[in-house]
Automatic annotation (TrEMBL):
Protein name as annotated: FdhE protein
Domain FdhE C-terminal: 175-250
Keyword Plastid (UniProt): no
Any one cellular-component term (Gene Ontology): cytosol
Pfam families: FdhE_C
Annotated SUPFAM superfamilies: FdhE-like (SSF144020)
GO biological process: protein maturation
Keyword list, A-Z: Cytoplasm
Length: 256
């Protein structure tokens, strides 16, 4: 699905900055894809845990250029990527590697690695498609990330969606995918009148939330853009003390 980002900005001018950031990521994903090997079918999921060394450097330099980042300051990260030191498959588990001599906090490095690794994860999904598979313990069956979004489909069934690799799959209809609680007294829904097509599923057991996207929204935009378009709901949830467990498409968990 091709979406005109500028048209979406015209409809939601309050989201201009994050949507323009996402447009940069789209460009990075497209150009990074041209640098990645076309045939990956011979690689196992266990052996495919980072960028191939011959394209890690070019992809990192492309990333720095598109996002207008200080390449000299981030050089230690580029070197770590080129030497294969960073295991991307640990990132969805919330594990951030230590990169010596890098002037960045753990949170800043986590965001950078999420953005720089997404072309890898999306390519991995193409090689090992697991869409439709059950999300055991509420984790993505391909990369083990927590869900970024949920949708309700006919059945009814609840599908969870991954912001790292884009995999979607089924999960039990009642229950928190982040902690597994099925205590309905602690599971609630929050809706906002000015955010039609979106709502929040909150859990008071673990104080987390997942945004729910109505299927009609996906006739108009991708899941990534649905997550971006509903940023105001993240602010609502977080103002009430709930936390987001998976980053959105521009690496944000905490808004504001």
């Amino acid at each position: 699905m091709t979406i005109d980002i500028q048209a979406l900005i015209a409809k939601r001018p309050h989201l201009k900055d994050p949507l323009e950031m996402y447009a940069r990521w789209q460009r990075f994903h497209q150009e990074a894809g041209e640098l990645l090997p076309k045939e990956r079918s011979a690689m196992s999921a266990e052996d495919s845990r980072t960028y191939p060394r011959d394209c890690a450097g070019p992809i990192f330099r492309l990333f720095v250029s598109i996002f207008d980042l200080p390449g000299e300051e981030l050089a230690p990260l580029g070197q770590a990527l080129e030497s294969g030191e960073i295991d991307f498959m640990r990132l969805p588990l919330g594990e951030v590697p230590v990169v010596s001599a890098l002037p960045a906090t753990e949170d800043e490095l986590s965001k950078i690695l999420f953005l720089v690794s997404r072309p890898y994860f999306l390519a991995l999904r193409q090689t090992f498609p697991l869409d439709g598979s059950q999300w055991e313990d509420g984790r993505c069956p391909l990369c083990s990330a927590r869900p970024a979004l949920a949708t309700i489909v006919e059945g009814p069934q609840r599908h969870l969606h991954c912001s790292f690799c884009g995999t979607s799959g089924t999960y039990q209809f009642i229950g928190c995918p982040n902690c597994g609680s099925t205590d309905v007294s602690q599971l609630n829904t929050i809706m906002a009148e000015d955010e039609s097509g979106f709502r929040l599923a909150t859990c008071d057991a673990c104080h987390s939330y997942v945004k729910i996207v109505e299927s009609s929204i996906l006739d108009e935009m991708t899941l990534d853009l649905a997550d971006m378009a509903s940023l105001p709901l993240d602010l609502v949830a977080q103002a009430k003390g709930y936390v987001r467990m998976a980053p959105n498409p521009i690496a944000l968990k905490t808004m504001g």
